[in-house]
Amino acid sequence: MMGRRTFLTSATTGVTAAAATAAAGQGTAVAGTGVEAGREDTDFLTFLTAAADARATSILDGYGTYLTELRDRGKARSSARALRTLTSVYVHDGSARHRDGALLGPLGELADALAQEQFDDGLWDQGAAHSPPDTAFSIVDLNLAYSLLDKDDHRPTEKLRATVEGILRSAGPGLATGGLHTPNHRWLVCAALARIHHRWPDPAYRRRIDAWLAEGIDQLPGGEYSERSPNYAAAVSNPALLTLARFHNRPDLYGHVRDNLNASLYVIEPNGEVETVHSRRQDQTTPRHLPEFWLQYRELAIRDGDGRFAAVAALLRKRGTGQTFGETPLGDRLAEVLDRPELARELPRPTELPTDYEHHDPSCALVRVRRQDATASVFGGTDFPDVHAISSGLSTNPTFFKMRKGAAILDSLRLAPQFFALGHFRAENLERAADGGWRLTAEVRAAFHQPLPPQHRRRDGLYPLTDDGRFWSAMDFPHRPKEYRTLRTEVTVREVADGSWTLDVELAGSEVPFALELCFRPGGTLTGDGLETVSGSPDTYQLVGGEATYAVGDDRITFGPGNGKGGKQPPVVDAGERYSWMSGSLTPAGIRVLITGRSPLTYRLSLR
User: Signal peptide: which range, if any (predicted)?
Assistant: First the structure.
């Protein structure tokens, strides 16, 4: 029987041997190279083991739902992750379920179902027909589970190991020849292939990995990846690159993960959320949480002796189980630690995390300011001014300012002119103002079209269907002379004291109504004599005069002044025809306050 310390020690020995193999030119590198052995962090391991035991109980209580999702809906990912988690507690003798025979039946059923639902090309659907990247998510988990089972080498799991081995071998060719959708999928597929190739070498697998890697890692100068998603994309790319560093002899990839984790230090909110307003993925309007990166910070802290990364890891351990762990339940993490025993070493001495800074990332057009528990974000980097489109994979969130004072959170500040249904103000740039503030500017225009020149007229009147910039019509718009209307917007954001701000809003050109929309996180109380409810819009108010305050306990944000009301400045947020035509909505969730006006004007909003 292999005890817990024996298991961890033997795994570390395997790390050292694999690293030596790589140094001899065999093409395999594993984490731990250059990392001195340290004492085991027993508190961390005990904490993670207890979470894994609880998670395993939850899986066992309802593991039939995993089978149903797999067989009826083609969702392999949850089943593979359940198998991985149950495997971790089975092989780990610090677990209350170590070598528990009650786990063998569910483990076998999950593995059999995964094998049965696998297509002849080794792939699963998971929302897309015969999808290599979606398959790779599951293969990453099954690679890890197989490695743990193989090291444990317990006779009752022989059949289980054979089934998982068959799944992995079947998946290899499909992953080595199939395509994908997004930048982070490249590294995910490579990571899945790298571990298969490490165990069952095939030159085709190495060639495929090298072909993807030859495209270059899509990392921006500020540390974010090209999708600018500090949660969703980075949560895929970072673990994949760490796996490739270990199993594909690419230690240079540690540097990319290090740079990304360093960038994340400046988008961490005091409560553990991560700022995502600049993302090009689905997290651009959805709060995500730092614990998704716990083990990455831990690994790089131990590897590099980085006290800042150690501080993040220590903070997440201190916060315990009473925090949101993103997409990955805490208990699912034990498998990664058993697979990389160096993660269970004691952390280096933590150093102070940055809590007082102004950080500008030009590659994302994002400014982050933090003054202890007060934070703010200024964002001017949506893709809309460049591509004039709203689509998946683009940054289109019109929020240009956010702030927090403790538990009082302004989730969104937006500006929506009613100008030819072109929608919200989206800044064309973000630059430092002469007085030290930050300036956001945009100019939009819309055309009235004149008659076609004689050479472009048709007797039959059948002109091509073309784009006006707002809508399509059979009008041959490109060849018509145009008469333009223009709206110019400038917003200058200034910090006037720790946690207090002014925003000077100037609109010029056309005379149109507009609404500033402040949206506060649900759960607080809104007060102010100048507040009036907006008919037909739940939890929406218009501030017509004076100031108002949003409070959560003793934390509060006071803002204003109101700017009047009337038929020429209605409390309406015009999201634009691109949304309204498709019955879409840009209304954020929360308590909304509208401050309205009419251009041309200059208005100063104060927030303190």
Answer: 1-24
